[in-house]
Amino acid sequence: MITLGEYIIEKQQDFPEASGELSSLLSSILLATKVVNREINKAGLVDIIGATGVENIQGEVQQKMDLYANETFKAALEARGEVCGIASEEEDEFIIFDSERGVNSKYVVLMDPLDGSTNIDVNVSVGTIFSIYRRVSPQGKQTTLEDFLQPGHCQVAAGYVVYGSSTMLVYTTGHGVHGFTCDPSLGVFYLSHENIRIPESGQTYSINEGNYLKFPDGVKKYLKFCQEIDQPTNRPYTSRYIGSLVSDFHRNLLKGGIYIYPSTASTPKGKLRLLYECNPMAFLVEQAGGKASDGFKRIMDIEPTELHQRVPFFCGSTNMVEKAETMMEQYSPESKTTTESEKAKKLIA
Ligand code: P6P
Asked: What gap in Å lies between CA 162 and CA 160, rounded to an integer?
């Protein structure tokens, strides 16, 4: 029974150039996770569920637990002094940690402190998602926007916490994906899933079919493919959609499956945010042997332009993602938003 703290230190040799800062950073995330977990588990008993009436930059009404989780992770990260700043779904701009330790630290963290938080009021699982980069601005100075607008393939580490029937923390530092389960009697996270591998095929698809009428034709064709009767390929597949990315992702990671949030009428660029939802999940799924794209382009190769930019998201078992991409190429090529096609449009204009 090895704890998360012991595992991080044991694996520190994977980072010869890091003299313990990354280990210390990850353990500060663990500390904040324990505090948030405690509050979520009693959210029904204290005045901490429900909405604040305040909207965040996403135009979404902030839940009280959103703000609590955001403040908890922000405080834990700043106190540990291993990051020079953070970006968060709950913060309009990136946050600068301008203490002497902060400006001299190596890393930045991007996070969705509590994803799917509207589920808390109805006791459905929610999650935290985090992504860690080495800064590109000079140490000794304040962090800059460029530290946060790095493509996903530059991530140093990424992970999520799923506050479900049990609380699990799953992370990668580029050396496989490892899951730790909390023993609530001790508040300790023990290694429970070492080297998680996602099956290359699955029988589950996760998508909000309420948006069907406005899906790209390629997505509609893929859904019909999933629903066809075909014994040899175990179809029809099963539809499972919790409305909590971390929960749907976690199930598909362990059992195989695909999660799709495509462009819709109300979210023409998709709903999920590239920097602190899609990139960390893409890093994890690729490290587990899966795939993540916007339907055409590898998520981790997308060059970010804005802190809260959204992208369509296809993520999960490689064979399933590739089948969906084939249908997007065949039936919705106009949805491709690669740099090349944008340049072509400008030339024609
Ligand atoms: P919809 C939660 O708000 C979230 O960001 C993901 O966790 C979840 O998968 C998705 O949005 C649900 O969105 O539009 O289907 O309710």
From this structure: 6
Co-location of 98 and 234 in the same domain: no
Whose CA is closest to atom 3 on ligand 1? 116
Q: Give the pLDDT confidence of 144-167 residue by residue, as tens digits.
A: 999 999 999 999 999 999 998 899
Q: Say if 199 falls within a structural domain.
A: no
Q: Under DSSP, is residue 249 helix (H, G, I), strand (E, B) or coil? A: helix
**Does 158 reside within a domain?**
yes
Whether residue 95 sits in one domain with residue 52: yes
The 8-class DSSP code of residue 3 comes to B
In the structure encoding, which two tokens stand for residue 79, read together? Answer: 């106190």
One-letter amino acid of 321: V
Task: Identify the CA nearest to 113 among candidates 150, 156, 58.
Answer: 58
Give me the pLDDT at residue 349, please.
64
Give how many domains the chain has, as a whole number: 2
The position carrying tokens 């839940």 is: 63
Distance 243 CA to ligand 1 centre (A): 5
Q: Which residues on neighbouring strands pair with residue 61, listed in sequence order?
A: 55
Q: Which amino acid is at 92?
A: D
Ligand 1 geometric centre to CA of 198 (Å): 22
Contact 130, 160 (CB under 8 A): yes
Q: Are 179 and 214 in a shared domain? A: no
Domain boundary among 193, 227, 257: 193
DSSP summary character for residue 254? H
Whether residues 181 and 259 fall in one domain:
no
Beta bridge partners of 162: 127, 168
Model pLDDT, residue 177: 97
pLDDT tens-place string over residues 175-224? 999 999 999 898 899 999 999 999 999 999 999 999 999 999 999 999 99
Domain boundary among 168, 193, 218: 193
The answer to whether position 103 is within a domain reads yes
- Residues making up the chain, counted from first to last: 349
Domain membership flag for residue 57 = yes
The domain of 247 spans: 204-344
Pocket test for ligand 1, best of 65, 112, 208 (most atoms within 8 A of CB): 208
